[in-house]
Amino acid sequence: MQSDPKRVAMISVHTSPLDQPGTGDAGGMNVYVAETAKELARRGVEVDIFTRRTSGGSPIDVELAPGVRVRHVLAGPYEGLSKEDLPGQLCAFTAGIMDAGLSVPEDHYDIVHSHYWLSGQVGWLAADRWRVALVHTMHTMARVKNLHVADGDRPEPPGREIGEAQVVEAADRLVANTRTEARELIEMYAALPSKVSVVPPGVDLRMFTPGDRRVARRSLGLSEESDLLLFVGRIQPLKAPELLLEVAHELIRRDPGRRRTLTIAILGGPSGTGLAHPHELEELAVRFGIADLVRFVPPVARTVLADWYRAADLVIVPSRSESFGLVALEAQACGTPVVAARVGGLPTAVGDSGVLVDDRATSGWADAVAGLLADPARRAALGAKAIRHAGRFGWGPTTDRLLTVYRRAIAERQAPPVDLGVRLAGVPTAVTP
Hints:
The chain has 15 helices and 14 strands.
């Protein structure tokens, strides 16, 4: 019988689960790490999360929740380093983890779970040093992102592609968010199908719940009568928030009367290559003549974020690439329909409870949005379906599936070596239960 791990070392080099999602590089991965760690702790598994120290005032260790400790590792200067600078600090980060490991017995951790390729490079060495299995989650992949680069945006560098391929080969198990991501790992990175497990992310079903739209709007100081279109996410070309402004401009061009009823909200902060032009969206709104209709909102606490979802008529997710799309799932858990790009994991996150748009033409997006705004009954039906769909994706089931992956990785690590034979083609027919 396979046993559960007692202690897990999670590694998240470039962003901390303590960071506010929507700021800097913090996003869905932060939520994933924090929520799965807390769920593991509820099951009696102790979790240490290793992340880079970015402030001299940060305590070395912070308790995120009972049984979950965030451990800050000194690697490079506290400030001034972008994610692209961090490969040069991986040796220092690894040394910091090794130092932390000296304070505990050699068999203290039962497994290492790394998140994002930078962490995979560190996790590879840590798992080898501690003689335990390495489970790795990519979250995003360079070769996938480079298929969808926005005009004028920078592609991911070759060094990242090489680093990701090394982690794929080194990991004992790879966790994919969706079958699509599993297929990409196999076809684009030559991952062994037998190493890949599909574990969909979850949503906090206690935080993101349906509520009264009018009450939510009053709490946010919004008109109770307007048509509110909402974007939530980091402001960068990959997330394509400018498409929402283009849609609003097109809707008003078609029907100038919409100017009296339309409100656009863009909630998030500049990130990644978006930092090079932090006011580009504001300038675009001015050029379109819709600046008076657009509210730019900095990242907010999750309780407030839930009210924004409840307040919106539609949530727009126009990403060029998305490994899953937690924003879509959070919005749907609040009963708000989603209009999203048919890319990556969004078809899984949205299911049949929203509208998926196949291309990036503004006219098609405007058609989808206008059709839903004109049909309150359809929006209500989709909202009800969205609640049921999101209800299948709690963090509890996600963590149960992760534990299955951990058990298998531990058992395989402890088993005598076997001949893996010829690699199988295609995605495994069975996913982690």
